[in-house]
Amino acid sequence: MAKEWDPFAIDFAAIRILRLVSELGSFSKAAEALGTNQSTISYTMDRLRAAFHDKLFVRQRGGIAPTPRCAEIVACAGRLLEAFEGLVQPVDFDPASASGRVTIACNYYERSIILPRAIAEVRRRAPRLVLDIRTAGAEGVAHLKRGEADLLVGPYDVREESFYHRHLLDDHYVCVMHKSHLLAGRRLRVDDYVKASHAVVTYGGTWRSGYLRGLDERGLSLNQVVAIPSISDLAHILPGTDLVSTVPSRIAPNIAKSLVARACPFPEPFQIGMTWTSRTHHSAAHRWLRQLMGRLAGTLPYKAALATAQDRRRGSAKARA
Predict the structure, then answer these.
(1) pLDDT per residue over 85-134, tens digit each?
(2) What's the pLDDT score for residue 306?
(3) Topology at the third CATH level for domain 173-268
(4) What distance in Å separates the CA atoms of residue 47 and residue 50, rounded to the nearest whole number?
(5) Which parts of 162-299 fold into alpha helices (H)?
(6) Phi and psi dihedrals of 204, rounded to 5?
(7) What pTM did the predictor assign?
(8) Which among 80, 104, 107, 174 could bridge 249 via Cys, Cβ 3.0 to 4.6 Å?
């Protein structure tokens, strides 16, 4: 007969392990994240199963998944754990003496617009803090859940209870082309835009940019002649060609000096934010870094989209004609 465990004998360390296993979907990954061995994780899970009279996890392809009872326990006990983690954090945080490593998952946009200033500030104020920057792509949220990243920065809309989110900045799309392009000297109408030869940035995954979704909603499609995985490729592809590409406005000036930016008929505003989990929510170092990035992002200059709905309707009618 399995040994009975008193639920009131369960400590915060066991709850922390349960939450981490639930987030990562793996005993071995939880053990690695905690710097312990898998047998310790298994022993803790046995105690928790006996205390809560539930198997807690079931096997599924690629890992394990929490039972409904386990999800309920993690949600409720997790709130207690977060409150306790907040209590044990030092009241004062000194960046100059702080050490550790923070892993940030993001993409080319964030590495070009947000991180340069953030890294410079970290080097100046917290020189012993190590930043590990990784590509997020379509796996950004999964990186957070598996504990492979501490912070996710990008246009990700994560709506789960165990995640925290903070808005960083707004942006919209513009068109870039070589300065000698026939369309460079005038404002683009919808019919000009859809008929032009486009180099479309696919971002190397299933992501579909807002301006493409805007075109879909109106039954329009671009004359796509080139598909590339990253905005960084445009510096080598657009100069001296008849190609047009649609990119975020903040990054357009950084691509190449020989390119010009023009208002896009489908600016489709979007937001960039940062997302993290309860695992790092109360960490003084992580909180300091998030506040620093939020402050720096708020100082970046921005000019909102100029295209109007009336311009779009007028041009869209011509494009369908």
Answers:
(1) 767 766 678 999 998 899 999 999 999 999 999 999 999 999 999 999 99
(2) 61
(3) D-Maltodextrin-Binding Protein; domain 2 (3.40.190)
(4) 5
(5) 190-195, 210-217, 234-237, 278-281, 284-298
(6) 65, 25
(7) 0.75
(8) 174
